Amino acid sequence: MKTSDFYYDLPAELIAQDPLEDRASSRLLCLDRATGRWEHHVFREILDFLNPGDCLVINNTKVIPARLYGVREETGAKIEVLLLKRREERVWETLVKPGKKARPGTKLTFGGGLLTGEVTDVVEEGNRLIRFSYEGIFEEILDKLGQMPLPPYITHELKDKNRYQTVYAEHDGSAAAPTAGLHFTPELLEQIRGKGVHIAHVTLHVGLGTFRPVKVENVAEHHMHSEFYFIEEDQAELINRTKAEGGRVIAVGTTSCRTLESAAGEDGVLKASSGWTDIFIYPGYRFKIMDGLITNFHLPESTLLMLVSAFAGKEHVMAAYEEAVRERYRFFSFGDAMFIA
Prior knowledge:
It is a single chain. This protein is of the alpha/beta class and 341 residues long. It contains six helices and 17 strands. The chain folds into two domains: 242 residues, QueA-like (3-Layer(aba) Sandwich), CATH 3.40.1780.10; 79 residues, Thrombin, subunit H (Beta Barrel), CATH 2.40.10. A hairpin with a 4-residue loop joins strand 8 and strand 9.
């Protein structure tokens, strides 16, 4: 299977640059994965497609304002640091620009000294380990100094940090939002519960590897990035009970999907667990637990588009994407959504 099989032509003006004022007013393309038929709806109408006894699985990770702008102490030269993974209490794996100037021993200052750091090592892909020094609580300092790490295709400034955050975000740790969840409002979630639909939560901290392009032509040769996840016992029980009672398990976003499929056994039973997953889902994959998927529209030739194609069939998905382009849907993180079942 070739990476180029997942290419589609997207006019640049269809890449959504700003979130809609009303989260639930995004458009919703509903795709029947058995027949390939689609219908056009508004996202708040997702309620009509959920049945009592179904279970929505949301990813309650929280995006941290992981982009820091500072200077090198020795020269005063500007430097940009993007926090990727917390390795120890004060040590982070980071992406630094310009990287060549950030050799081990380089000292950095942010916010006039409110936060300082020292590069301690260079690891895979040129990422830097930085040991930070500060007084107080790191998360509070980060909230004061950091900026949201918006994807590279979004060029507009985000006026409200909370708009790149789901309304149910809880656990700090992501460098990118689980964007399918951005469409939900507290009111819509309450209506969903009121219909008798269960809502379970898992946590997967989304890394910037989610935007990493596939650089090999043979899909199977792509090396997937790893991300940390955890599933609590009571949530695994709720999801397993849903399956046992004949309800559908519907993942909100590809991150929830990857978490579920990573932790499910071949028997389709979900295990409470935590750890790192580098699961790569592409056509030919046999889904163990997921019955439905709510997702945004993804980049051409991306691993996320391959995952969606594995679930609904590549021909069905590519045809639906062509329809979305024709109908001028909004694409990517702040764009419109699909419901596939």
